[in-house]
Every structure is written in structure tokens, then in C-alpha cells.
UniProtKB/TrEMBL annotation, chain A:
It comes from Halorubrum kocurii JCM 14978. It comes from the Archaea. The chain crosses the membrane at residues 25-45, 71-89, 109-129, 196-217, 315-335, 355-377. This is Binding-protein-dependent transporters inner membrane component. GO terms for biological process: transmembrane transport. Belongs to the binding-protein-dependent transport system permease family.
């Protein structure tokens, strides 16, 4: 593509840049549509044609019943692939610059590595590692290289040395009281965490960006009203409202994601609004307007990309809050008990902490590392994507 | 707009926000079938009566047969007159139950808030003054650790170490000891430590990054040149401007933490505070008590945000009232 090397003015592919009609889609949007339409068709087919008990993919083979959360997750993954990952390949020069800036922050690189592990484990892990299954007889198996007193374990899978049950590679991180494998529980928990992270982020970004730009461009009393609404959203006690909804209607993972995302976009909207207001004063926006660009085009092509770095940073720092909230609810026994999340594991092992600490420690440390990684990453992105902020932090 | 008018407007706005949240709560509750009506119907069916009639009677008894707006006005009136009904599970008025809970919650949240507000900015400014030294790195590491470790997870680990293994603190909070006694201080030290660790990180980071700006400001150079002692220079010329941006985030963060953590920490350590009351109400299906504690937390949050805005204007006289 000619836009890859815009150093020389005469080499710029103006038809590429001046694409203005909405139906003249970029390669990203074409790919997105091509991937999302079949997904939509499958979802509709699942919803309307198949009866509730038939797993979605039964006609094809695997007995994987795709739920609403799964559809949303796949959709957000597609968005991520086509609008975040693909542009990085389309513009290698910029990517290299970001990477250079990012690389200087070593904890952030390690964090990115850890998050990549969680990401890959969460997406592909469940296809290779079966879901943890209940088996009372092999409860309280210790992790590999560790041992536990024989009296706690009914059937020791490994060897028994000096009345101590040894851990085996069959259960590398041990098992819970019900004999569920902790390692596979953690891998399946990665899926849940990724689902929470991706879906909430998409919802928050969509509402926040739309609300912020509309508010900035509407101006006057509409702007005032919308920002007061944001104030209310920001001061809303989400966890309590969720408890109330849970109490009255009952709630699963989908409800959790919707409620928490619905009250988390306030900060993003505020930020996008102030950014739009400041950008709309810039010379290049005026030039754009004079050339006849519509408001939508200005917002889509200039305001949002200019605010993107800070939006991404902010979203990165929001995700740990969601993960923590899910773990807290699961720990209280109020989470979705049908899903194998990290919080469920922690709460499962709580009463056996004194002699079987691995049940709590393993998922707890994974949760801790993931939250830590998101925080480091957010900090580093702030520096890498936003050169102005660097002056303050350096 | 003068200060007086600004305060009035801000207080009115807080009232509006609390009214809106109360309204949403009401709509949530009234849109769902009332569990006690269903209970009455089931009861009647079991005893051979007419379930529909029993449900009707139960609805009448609770005033549910009245139109929505009448019930709404009643609800609002009773909320703002603190007539919050009777707690079924605790056999006492809801306000009384919440008051008892608040008594225990205050015992750990007051030291927690004071410690966070005092230590956080101090350490933050200190590590900005010694930027990139090992002290700064240690403080940053601690900040990230505290920020990332889930409170309840940290709590159960510490409870295992200090409660089960070392037996320094009781495993379940002992309510028999006097409030101002050594025993109480000891058993509350771990919950307070957990909470402070969780909340201080963000305060430290913000105050470190904000005060870094003022370190090399012209007025600091002037102050140093005039021979002002470093302590005074930092206290007057770095700390004060740092507190302004800090105060915008501090209260909000503390409140958010308070809502979530008080629940978790009280459940982990067995403190019978307001979070625990909420949790038990949820488990015992005590609608009135759950509603009451939701409203209590909401009002605490609204008042907290109000105070934050007022403190903000007092701290920074440069900000004009018209902007907000």
C-alpha cells in the first residue's frame, strides 16, 4: 500500500486517503463484515432454529454449546483482530516506533508476555484441556513436587512416601476438595477472564466514545444534560446495584458483564468529550471542514484516532477492576456458579486453606499477576502512545 | 458565582443524584415479583387454600395493589424520613440494624481512611523527592503490589498466617472486647493493614507523579534560594498543589474501595459491620434490610462525592465556580 511510506508528497495515494463515501469500505471493515456476518447467521440459527438443548455445533461435530457470552466474545475478538492487530501490520513504521518506546519499559514487556499467555491459554486452552471434572476420590491431591499428609487424601494418585501423598504431573497444581484439577480450572478461568475483559471493554468503548463525541458536538444544554448524566453514572454504586439485581432477578456471567460495563463508561465519555472539544479547535480540523468533511467523518477519522491512545490506556486500567469484581462476587458465593472462574476456585479452597493452600494460592496468584500485568501495561502504554505524558513521568 | 451559591447548587445536585438512584432502586424492586407474595401463595397452596386469593391478600397487605405512582411517593417519603421498615432476619428495625453494623465498620474504616490520607501523599512526595533511588523503587513496587493484590485474597492469606499459624489475632472478630482496647487494636490491625495496602498504592502513585512537576518549578527554586528549609519547602510548596489533583481522585477511589472491600474484608475477618449486614440480608432474602443497606451505601457515596467537590474548591482557590 502506498500509505506505508508517506515520506514523499507525490507518492501519497490520494484515492486511498480521500475515501469519503461510507460504502467504500476499507480492507479492515470488509474483513470484519466477512467474518461477522457468518457469526451473526450462526447466532440467529442457534437462537431461532435449534432447540435449546441441542449444542450449537452438534451437526458439525464438537459438542460445544455456544452461549450468548461466547458469541459476544468471538465478535469482540474479531473487532480486536481487524481494528487493532491488523492496522499494526498495515503500518509497520508506526508499529516499530511504538515497540521501541514500549520496549524501554521492561516490566511492561514481561506483563505483555504474561497477558499473551493468558490470552492464548484462554482462547485455545479449553480445546486441548478438558474442563475440570468432579471426582471425590482424588480430592486434595497436592501439586507436583509437594506433598500432603495421607490422612487428608482418600486416594493418592502419586506415590506415598513416609505417610505423605506426593504430587504428580497428572495434576500439576493439585486438585480441589471435589477432585477438580486446579490447573485446568485456571486455564478455563483464563477464558472467563478474557471474555470479561474483551466484552466489557468493547461495550465501554462503544458507549463512551459515542456519548463523548455526541456530547461535545451537540453543545449547549444537551451537552450539559449529558455530562450531568455522566456524573450520575460515575457516582453509581455498581457492586451494590448488581447485588440488588442478583437478588431480585438472579444473574449469570452475561448479566455481570452488562451491568458492570453499563456503569463504567463515564470516565471514557468525559475524556473523549474534552479531547473532541480541544481537537475541534485545531487548524487541521478547520482545514478538513473547509474541504467539506462531514461531522461524522471528522469524528471518525480525526477525533477518535487522536483520542485513541488515551482511550486504550484507560480501558487497560479498567479491566483489572472487572476481573477483581468477578472474583469478589465468586468468592462471596454470589457469582455465576456454572462457570469455572478463578474466583470460584479461590472460594472453593477457602475452608481448606490450612492444609491445602494450593487451591487458593494458585488461582489467587494468577489473578494477582494478571491484574498487576494490566496495570503495568496501562502505565507503559501511557508513556508509549502519548509522548506528552512522558515529560511528566520521566 | 460566589462560594455560597456554588455550595448550594452542589448540595442540591447531590440531592438530585440521590433521588435518581433511589428511583432506579425502586423501579428495580417494583419490576420484579415480590418474593413474600409468592411465599404467601405457596403457603396457601400447601395448606389447601386458594393461592390466587392468598397472593391477592398479601399484595393488599403490603400495599402492592395501589398504582405505581402512589407506591413510588410512599417509597420516597419513607426513604427520606428514615422509615426503612422492619428487618425480618434480624427482628429489628432496618435503621437499627444498619446502625449496629456501622458501629463496627467505623472501627476499622476510620483508622484506614486516616492512615491512607496521611501516609499516601507523604510517601508519594518523599519518593518524588528521591526519584529513581532504591527508596523510590521500593515504594513504587509496594504501590503496585498493593494495588494489584485482591483484598480478600490478601486477607485470607494474612488470616492464615497471623490467625491460624501464629495465633496473634482471633480467626473470627471478637465483638466482646472494648472499642478502645489493645486487644481490639490488635485484631483490627490486619484488616486495616489489608485495606491500607489496597488503597494507598493509587494515592502514592498520583501524588508522586503530580509532585514531580512541582519539584523543579520556579517557585521551588525561589524558595530554596531564599533559604527555606527543605521540610518547609516541601510541605508548603509541593504538598499543597499536589493535594489538589489528588483530592479529585482520592475520595472517589476510597469510596469505591469502601463499597467493595468492606463487604469482602468483613466477610473474611468475620466483622459484623455494615458489609456483613448486607451480605447476610442477601443470603437470608431479607428485602427490607438489603434495600436499606443499598440506600445507606448510596447516601454515603453521594455525601462523599459532595464533600470531595467542596474540599476541592477550598484547597484550590484558583478554580472559578462557573466552570463546574
Amino acid at each position: 500500500m502506498a500509505t506505508q511510506k508517506p515520506e514523499r508528497f507525490d507518492q501519497v495515494d490520494w484515492t486511498e486517503i480521500s475515501r469519503s463515501r461510507w460504502f467504500d469500505l476499507s480492507i479492515n471493515s470488509i474483513g470484519m463484515l466477512a467474518a461477522a456476518l457468518p457469526l451473526l447467521i450462526v447466532a440467529l440459527y442457534d437462537w431461532q432454529v435449534l432447540d435449546e438443548r441441542t449444542p450449537t455445533l452438534e451437526p458439525v461435530g464438537p459438542a460445544w454449546d455456544v452461549g450468548t457470552v461466547d458469541y459476544l466474545f468471538i465478535f469482540t475478538l474479531l473487532l480486536f483482530a481487524f481494528y487493532i492487530v491488523l492496522p499494526l501490520f498495515q503500518n509497520p513504521r508506526r508499529t516499530k516506533y511504538y515497540w521501541r518506546e514500549f520496549k524501554r519499559n521492561r516490566p511492561a514487556v514481561v506483563s505483555l508476555g504474561w497477558l499473551a499467555v493468558v490470552f492464548v491459554g484462554g482462547i485455545f486452552g479449553p480445546f486441548f484441556i478438558s474442563a475440570p471434572e468432579q471426582s471425590i476420590l482424588t480430592g486434595y491431591q497436592p501439586p507436583v513436587f509437594l506433598s500432603v499428609e495421607q490422612s487428608y487424601v482418600s486416594t493418592c494418585v502419586g506415590e506415598v512416601v513416609n505417610n505423605q501423598c506426593q504430587g504428580t504431573w497428572q495434576h500439576p497444581l493439585g486438585t480441589t476438595a471435589g477432585g477438580k484439577d486446579v490447573f485446568s480450572g485456571i486455564v478455563h478461568g483464563m477464558t472467563i477472564s478474557m471474555q470479561i475483559g474483551f466484552i466489557t471493554t468493547t461495550i465501554v468503548a462503544t458507549i463512551g466514545i459515542t456519548f463523548g463525541t455526541v456530547s461535545a458536538y451537540a453543545g449547549g444544554w444537551a451537552d450539559e444534560l449529558m455530562m450531568r448524566f455522566v456524573d450520575i453514572v460515575l457516582s453509581f454504586p455498581t457492586l451494590l446495584m448488581f447485588l440488588l439485581i442478583l437478588y431480585i432477578y438472579g444473574a449469570g456471567l452475561g448479566m455481570f458483564i452488562v451491568v458492570f460495563a453499563a456503569f463504567a463508561w463515564g470516565g471514557t465519555a468525559r475524556y473523549v468529550r474534552s479531547k473532541s472539544l480541544s481537537i475541534s479547535e485545531e487548524e487541521f480540523i478547520k482545514a478538513n471542514r473547509i474541504s467539506g468533511a462531514s461531522t461524522y467523518r471528522v469524528v471518525r477519522r480525526h477525533v477518535v484516532p487522536n483520542a485513541a491512545s488515551s482511550i486504550i490506556t484507560q480501558l487497560t486500567l479498567l479491566i483489572p477492576g472487572f476481573l477483581l469484581a468477578e472474583a469478589q462476587l465468586a468468592f462471596l458465593g454470589l457469582g455465576d456458579s456454572t462457570i469455572p472462574s478463578w474466583g470460584q476456585l479461590i472460594s472453593a479452597g477457602r475452608s481448606d486453606l490450612s492444609f491445602a493452600p494450593w487451591i487458593v494460592l494458585a488461582p489467587g496468584i494468577v489473578l494477582f499477576l494478571t491484574i498487576l500485568a494490566f496495570n503495568f501495561l496501562g502505565d507503559a502504554l501511557l508513556d508509549a502512545l502519548n509522548p506528552e505524558a512522558e515529560a511528566e513521568n520521566a | 458565582m460566589g462560594f455560597g451559591r456554588y455550595v448550594t447548587a452542589r448540595v442540591l445536585w447531590a440531592g438530585v443524584v440521590s433521588l435518581i438512584i433511589t428511583t432506579i432502586t425502586f423501579l428495580l424492586v417494583s419490576a420484579a415479583p415480590n418474593p413474600s407474595v409468592q411465599e404467601a401463595a405457596t403457603q396457601a397452596a400447601l395448606q389447601g387454600g386458594d393461592p390466587a386469593e392468598a397472593a391477592e391478600r398479601a399484595r393488599e397487605l403490603r400495599g402492592l395493589d395501589q398504582p405505581l405512582y402512589v407506591r413510588y411517593m410512599d417509597f420516597i417519603e419513607s426513604v427520606y424520613t428514615f422509615d426503612w421498615g422492619w428487618s425480618r432476619s434480624r427482628s429489628q428495625p432496618v435503621t437499627e440494624a444498619l446502625g449496629q453494623g456501622l458501629y463496627y465498620t467505623a472501627q476499622y474504616s476510620v483508622p484506614w481512611t486516616v492512615l491512607t490520607v496521611l501516609i499516601g501523599p507523604l510517601v508519594g512526595v518523599y519518593s518524588a523527592a528521591n526519584m529513581y533511588s532504591w527508596k523510590d523503587h521500593a515504594a513504587t513496587g509496594f504501590a503496585f503490589f498493593g494495588y494489584a493484590i485482591p483484598n480478600f485474597f490478601f486477607g485470607i492469606i494474612l488470616l492464615l498466617i497471623f490467625g491460624v499459624w501464629l495465633e496473634v489475632i482471633p480467626v473470627v472478630y471478637n465483638t466482646d472486647v472494648a472499642v478502645f482496647s489493645v486487644q481490639n487494636a490488635v485484631q483490627l490491625s490486619i484488616p486495616v493493614f489489608v485495606l491500607v495496602t489496597g488503597s494507598i498504592g493509587a494515592v502514592m502513585r498520583v501524588s508522586r507523579n503530580e509532585s514531580a512537576e512541582f519539584q523543579n518549578a520556579e517557585f521551588m527554586k525561589t524558595a530554596k534560594a531564599k533559604g527555606v528549609s527543605p521540610l518547609r519547602a516541601y510541605a508548603y510548596h509541593v504538598m499543597r498543589p499536589t493535594l489538589v489533583p489528588l483530592s479529585t481522585t482520592l475520595v472517589g477511589q476510597l469510596l469505591a474501595l469502601f463499597l467493595g472491600s468492606s463487604l469482602l474484608v468483613e466477610v473474611v475477618f468475620g466483622i459484623p459491620g455494615i458489609g456483613r449486614v448486607t451480605y447476610n440480608a442477601l443470603i437470608a432474602q431479607d428485602t427490607n434490610l438489603l434495600l436499606g443497606s443499598t440506600l445507606a451505601f448510596t447516601f454515603i457515596a453521594v455525601i462523599g462525592n459532595l464533600l470531595e467537590d467542596l474540599v476541592f474548591t477550598v484547597l484550590d482557590p484558583r478554580i472559578s465556580y462557573d466552570d463546574r
